[in-house]
Amino acid sequence: MTQAAFPALRLRRPRRHGWSRAMFAENVLTPADLIWPLFIAHGDEVEPIASLPGVSRWPLARIAERAKEARDAGIPCLALFPNTPRDKRSDDGREALNPDNLMCRAIRTIKDAVPDIGLLTDVALDPYTSHGHDGLVDAEGHVLNDPTKDVLVGQALVQAEAGSDIIAPSDMMDGRIGAIRGALEGGGHVDVQIMAYAAKYASAFYGPFRDAVDTRGLLKGDKKGYQMNPANAEEALREVAMDLAEGADSVMVKPGLPYLDIVRLVKQRFEVPVFAYQVSGEYAMIEHAVAAGAADRDAMVLETLMAFKRAGASGVLTYHALHAARLLGA
Ligand SMILES: NCc1[nH]cc(CCC(=O)O)c1CC(=O)O
Ligand SMILES: [Mg+2]
Question: Does ligand 1 have an atom closer than 6 angstroms to the CB of 201?
Fold first, then answer.
């Protein structure tokens, strides 16, 4: 590429005026880029989550209001996470298969009230197990891949039957995308999508989420035996290749900002829709920085979300979705 030299070349020239900055923008962020995660309470009260300031668990009676707010702000899709009552959690997580569990009731409640918003539902056993792991555990505490995969298939089917639009397995078992895709096809759910949490890292940024779904106190050990090592990037490409080959419609990288290099690598290598999850610890870092007077919330939210777009993401799951969508729509 040939280009002029200074002073003919002045890269500041187009930055002088707002209209010009807008015209030269290489990426845009819109409310349609945002997926809003919502936590469902099992009781009747709104339950603020102390480690996730500004985020609450919503009872079923209030969940449709949130869906309407999201739709009215231009958010295309919600991600749902249930806080299963402790007495319904068990070693085998069988409540995940109950077609009347909190997740399935939330799906039906939202679909009845707001049929035109998309619903993405998490597939993994952690909100349902008494040990807090995403799968079935053997006597040594090892999470068993193949038996877990079979349960996840059943979990995906009850969610699809309740009306989920996008099944999002966040469990990191090998082979579950193919098994779930096969079951969805066999069950007549040919248009239900799969967004695979393909490159999900064993991260220190999930703490507040574990409070939100009440697994922090239950979790025995850690998830390093199935989630990825933060040292690895090549392996993320193998994870993505595997999930695409098994029928994923889109893939996710998680956490978000510390793994933007992975978003970029995946996008360049595969040219498929890539989503990023700006996770609970990332949200909390921003909120605590704001509370400490170290940052401007609106600017920081919009800048971090734009960074995902620049890296190549098709969209972002973020607890700031409603706030950001309203800023963008204003
Ligand atoms: N299936 C577990 C799951 N699904 C989404 C998140 C984290 C999301 C967040 O931190 O916002 C986790 C946490 C974990 O793996 O322990
Ligand atoms: Mg995998």
Answer: no
